[in-house]
Structure formats: structure tokens, C-alpha cells
Amino acid sequence: MAAKTKRLGRGLGALISDESDDEFFGDEGAKQFREVEIHSIRPNPFQPREEYNTKLMEELKNSIAEKGVIQPITVREKDRGYELIAGERRLRAVRELGYDRIPAFIMEVETDDEMLELALIENIQREDLNPIDVARGYHRLIEELHLTQEQVAQKVGKERSTVTNFLRLLKLPPEIQESLRKAEISMGHARALLGVDNAGRQLEIWEKTVQKKLSVRDVEAHVRKINQPPKRKVTISREKSPYIEAAEEKLREVLATKVKIYPQKKGGKIEIEYYSKEELERILEILQPPGNDY
Q: Fewer C-beta within 10 Å: the chain N or C terminus?
């Protein structure tokens, strides 16, 4: 028995039967869908994804090995070969499995700007892309294609506020962005940390969050505490009655020095100032009743 060539026998064929190709696609469809030799596909130069989950890649490979590629990749024709638009994980998986062909949808893409837009939008809309890569995808659409946040939101089918919230993540320190990429903290944690303007304080709270596995509510509480203005000491102004003021004045005249009276609920206290031993003796002589030594 001749050795079988490794190819995706259950890929495109499982989706489109040989008998129905012409009837289903017609001439135009036949040009758009085909099985493409893997060695002829070059990577997408605009790929926004920066890392791949090893566990998810293994699960994808197992699924393809058992059932084939259910969803074709998307490519464009360029320089007598193909350039990948979408389907990086699927292409990697079939290469690692040793297949030589993969079902592909051929798109007419003329400019690099259009290629970048398609690649970014396709990746952004995938559920397994981490928030930082999504944010960077939005940022590239704005910076490299000169789109507004409103235009980006329309192209990816999101609310403008959603796009804005993702872009704000790029203001966090690199350490926190990397932590979010690795799923050490959640999007909720990151958004709470944005409530603190100081990067140093953000890092302090982030370190506690990772070490103590704080919840989003815990982080929000820390942020509120930091942002709470310090309590001011309230000085209670106590106006003295005319009687007390008159008594102070009389004592100052008698003792010839500074005197203050502090009334209380019951009684009070008198404060008499002196500036030397001699002055103290003078005041005592004034206060001492005649004929009464001390």
C-alpha cells in the first residue's frame, strides 16, 4: 500500500462535496475557495497577536487531527504565492501536524493598509485575544490607518466607550499590562487601577492584588482610599463673653503681665505668664494676701 500524503482530507471536503462545487459556488466561488499548499503561504506581516496559549494550541491540534479544519483560513494572492490574512493559529497547528494543504478563502486585497485593517479587525474580534493585544490592535488602527475612535468602533462592531476603555489600558505601567496579558489580573482589576493617577501607587496596589489575590472590589476600595482627600482638623472657635474679657483685662492691669481665662462647663482655668524668676516673685507678692508669708 502506497504511503498516504498528509493532507486535510476532512477539511474543505467535509464542508463542500465534490458534486456540489460548481453548483454551490459557480465560477466566482471556485476562484475564492480552494485547498492551498501550506509551503506557499507566507505569514501575515501585520499580525497583531503576540503570544499564543499553549494549552489552547494543543486543543486545536487535537481537534484538527480528529475532524479536520472546520473553518478555512483567509489569504490573499501575492508574489506567486499567498499571504495570510486570518487563521494564524490554524495554520500553525496544521504545520505542526505535518499536513501539506489547508482549505483557504482567497480574498482580493490590493493595498497593505487594507491588509492591516482586515488582519487587525479579524484578530480583535476573536474571544481568545487578551485585552492588551486588543487595545494595541485598536491603537494601530488609529495610528497607522488614521481612524477615529468612532470609526474603529464601527469597523469592529463595538460601542465607542468599549474602544475607549481598551485604549486606556495602554496608559498603565508595562508591568501591569504584562500581568493583564498573562491573565494574572482581570480587565476589571486593570480598569480599577486606572482610577489612580500615580503610576507608583498603581504598581503598589497591583503588587498587593497579585500577591494576595485581591478581588476587583478590594482593588476599588484601595483606590477609593487613596483618592479620598485627607480630613481637615476642624477648629472650633469659642468666643469669650464680655464678662470673661473684662476679667482678663482687670487681671492684666493688676498683675502687669499677660493673662488668659479659659472657661469650662464647670469652672475654668487662669493662665498667667511670667518671663523670669524675679517676675514670678513680683506676681506672687501681688497675689499674696498682706501678712501671709509663703
A: N
Q: H or E element: which one contains 81?
A: strand 81-86
- Alpha helices (H) along the chain: 12-15, 21-32, 54-67, 88-97, 112-124, 131-145, 149-156, 160-168, 174-181, 187-193, 199-212, 216-227, 242-255, 277-287
**Ranges for all domains in the chain classified under CATH 3.90.1530.10:** 1-110
- CATH number of the 1-110 domain: 3.90.1530.10
19, 59, 88, 239: which one is catalytic? 88
**Backbone phi, psi, residue 110, to 5°:** -90, -40
Cα 184 to chain centroid distance, Å, stands at 12
Annotated active-site residue 58? The verdict is no
Report yes or no: 72 and 104 within 8 Å, Cβ to Cβ: yes
Mean pLDDT of the chain: 81
pLDDT tens-digit profile of 123-144?
Answer: 777 766 789 989 998 998 899 8
Q: Which residues pair with 75 in a beta bridge?
A: 84, 106
Q: How many CB atoms lie within 10 A of CB 275?
A: 9
Task: Confirm whether pTM is higher than 0.85.
Answer: no
